[in-house]
Specification:
By secondary structure, this protein is of the alpha+beta class. Helices cover 15% and strands 42% of the residues. The protein starts with a helix and ends with a strand. Belongs to the SspH family.
Length: 59
Amino acid sequence: MNQNRIKQILSSSADIEVKYNGASVWIDQLNEDGRTATVHLRGPLEERTIVELHELVEE
């Protein structure tokens, strides 16, 4: 996924499904380096992970 699409998803009020390694995640923020984002799994666990943008897939 690219930086512009991440920004659109973050500013949208819609529930846009994004997956990381097959798991549904919420995007918390686009990181300052412009190549990574901070995400957490949808559900009760809110452990945050930094991932490369190209690893995120919009469903």
